[in-house]
Amino acid sequence: MDKAIRALAFDFGASSGRAILGTFDGEKITLSEVHRFSNDPVDVRGTTYWDVLRLFHEIKQGIVQAKLAGGFDCIGIDTWGVDFGLLDEFGCLLENPVHYRDTRTKGLVEESFLSVPKDEFYKRTGIQFMELNTVFQLYSLRKYRPHILDRAQRLLFMPDLFAYMLTGEQHTEYSIATTSQLVDIETKDWAYDIMDKLGIPSRLFTPIVPSGTVSGMLSRDVCEECGVQPVPVIAVCGHDTQSAISAVPSTEKDFAFLSSGTWSLFGTELDAPIVNEKSLEINVTNEGGYGYATGFLKNITGLWLIQESRRQWAREGTQYSYADLEQLALQAEPLRCFIDPDAPEFGVRGNLPQRVQDYCAQTGQYVPQTVGEIMRCIYESLAMKYRQTLEKISDCTGKTYTVLHVIGGGTKDTLLCQMTANACDLPVKAGPIEATVLGNIAVQLIARGAIRDIGEARRILAHSEALRTYEPQNAETWKEAFANFVRATDNP
């Protein structure tokens, strides 16, 4: 190619955000971080919000820093799923978006089944039931704060909201739309009848556009403020999970992946969804991806368990680095006790180490006493949960996987990668660390015509990134301990 293309990716996680420039020279993609910032939820009178205006300010700072670093040709934004902002008739935010860990949806999944039976709900949407899903957040508003829905004219998911702030254009990108549990899995359009049954106004929803659509051009106001020329803002896979899947460096069509971060997303990519009694029983999700592919996966509580434990020990006066916690876990005796990472008590902020101890006591196991023992319990429980999920995914798809691709920030955690290989009895190929950003950039490059398709993008990424392989160790010992994990988590 005559000229390298530079794509600017904004990647928002649950605790931080980055602006990263990706430069494609026709053979490989190189990354340069130009701006990093914290993403801190704010509690106000019992509700947990995202500080959306501060985050938009940071986007503009990222644009300025990218200009100073040599400029860029396009922009893409990915974020976490399910959360949204509501706009009034003038296009103004009615309130800050509420955080998915807010408790407003507690108990509403089962209540919704009175209006939409569970089997029908899953058959229509193919999405895993979780209290944090958009549909239950909206159901909560209809039940407890109907005046907000009455005032609202439009709903925009987080990446689409930021794109609107940059361009003035309103739309909904496909992958982020499917996290709502309000998209018809067959038509790829909104399931309006489900909205009607739950009292959710259909006027809120904008047309769904495919991943890779140009959202619009940077507005004049943003260009003047940041001192840049208009460039296209591209609707990449707005859900960070699907951006990460786009960057799995596999040359095989059938692959298993674990996107490891605050959440663990474990699954595979399919040409078509699987919606049947078995997939409903294990509560697996069929999330929309690039090119209308299906991310067939389970959402599992991930490094949040370690992050929140570390915050609790800091609140008690002791600061541990993640390296400290890993070393303490290594010093503890292995495979003594387990938790279910997805038990509800582990999904909210607070004294998580105490909850680990309580869980072990209630299930008749050894109760971990030290920081290292608690950490070892968390690490090993995550690895066992991955094995359990791998078995369920294989059972649903009828496919056997010979390697597990671990992508995302969790690849830096060498202990967890090794334990995952041990528990799953599979080689783990770890990398890329920046899978979400690379997937974001790859879709921008496809939209600009610099890369032909997602297959070519994955081949480029496989050659652009150094991967680390972990071979299984002590597989028989882990297999025997897995039975103890199942007992501890089946009958909490």
Q: Total strand count, please?
A: 19
Percentage of residues in DSSP E strands? 15-25%
Taking Cα atoms only, what radius of gyration do you get, to the nearest Å?
A: 22 Å
Morphology: globular
Please report the distance between the alpha carbons of the first and last residues: 59 Å
Describe this structure in words.
By secondary structure, the chain is of the alpha/beta class. The chain is built from 19 helices and 19 strands. The protein has helices at residues 52-68, 108-112, 118-125, 134-144, 146-151, 158-167, 174-178, 192-198, 220-226, 240-246, 277-281, 304-315, 322-331, 352-362, 371-397, 414-424, 435-447, 454-464, 475-490, and strands at residues 5-12, 16-24, 29-38, 42-44, 47-49, 74-78, 84-87, 154-157, 172-173, 208-209, 213-217, 232-235, 256-260, 263-270, 285-288, 294-301, 404-407, 428-430, 468-470. The strands form 5 sheets. Strands 15-16-14-13-17-18-19 form a 7-stranded mixed beta sheet, with helices on both faces. Strands 3-2-1-6-12-11 form a 6-stranded mixed beta sheet, with helices on both faces. A hairpin with a 2-residue loop joins β13 (256-260) and β14 (263-270). The longest helix is centred in the C-terminal third of the chain and has 27 residues, at 371-397. The chain is globular and about 60 Å long. It starts with a strand and ends with a helix.
Structural descriptors:
single chain, 492 residues, alpha/beta, seven-stranded mixed β-sheet, six-stranded mixed β-sheet, 19 helices, 19 strands, 40% helix
